[in-house]
Specification:
The chain is α+β, with helices and mostly antiparallel strands. It folds into 2 domains: 53 residues, Glutaredoxin (3-Layer(aba) Sandwich); 48 residues, no CATH class. It has 3 helices and 6 strands. A two-stranded antiparallel sheet has the order 1-2. Strands 3-6 form a two-stranded antiparallel sheet. The radius of gyration is 19 Å and the shape is flat. It holds the Pfam family GRXCR1-2_C.
Length: 116
């Protein structure tokens, strides 16, 4: 989790001790595993999910139209282990461990004169 957002998450959840997972639905903080389990068992979770926007059926099969996927280099942790130096930040993905979808995200093309 990016430390820059810690204060914001603590304010949203009303809790100084944050545990994962932290589930948000439509921008609303739902809770963790136990809260989601209780909502599911009471039938309320389905109602919360049904209010979410429907994904375009023509959306990318790989990312579901989100345009980003988990980095395969670090499995979304944004950390790579090297035997000699330990953990270092992954240089392939963003701070959230995501990369642009290779199937649908626009690919940056080099100008002809820039290619080797």
């Amino acid at each position: 989790m990016d430390g820059k957002f810690l204060d914001e998450l603590q304010a949203i959840t009303g809790n100084k001790t944050l545990t994962l997972p932290m589930v948000f639905i439509g921008g609303l903080f739902i809770g963790g595993v136990e809260e989601v389990k209780q909502l599911h068992e009471s039938g309320q979770l389905k109602g919360l999910i049904q209010r979410l926007p429907v994904v375009d059926p023509r959306a990318c099969d790989f990312c579901g139209g989100l345009r980003f996927v988990l980095c395969q280099t670090c499995d979304g942790s944004h950390k790579v282990y090297h035997e000699k130096i330990g953990f270092t930040p992954c240089t392939v993905c963003n701070i959230n461990g995501l990369v642009k979808c290779p199937s649908c995200a626009p690919v940056r093309r080099l100008h002809r004169e820039c290619t080797l």
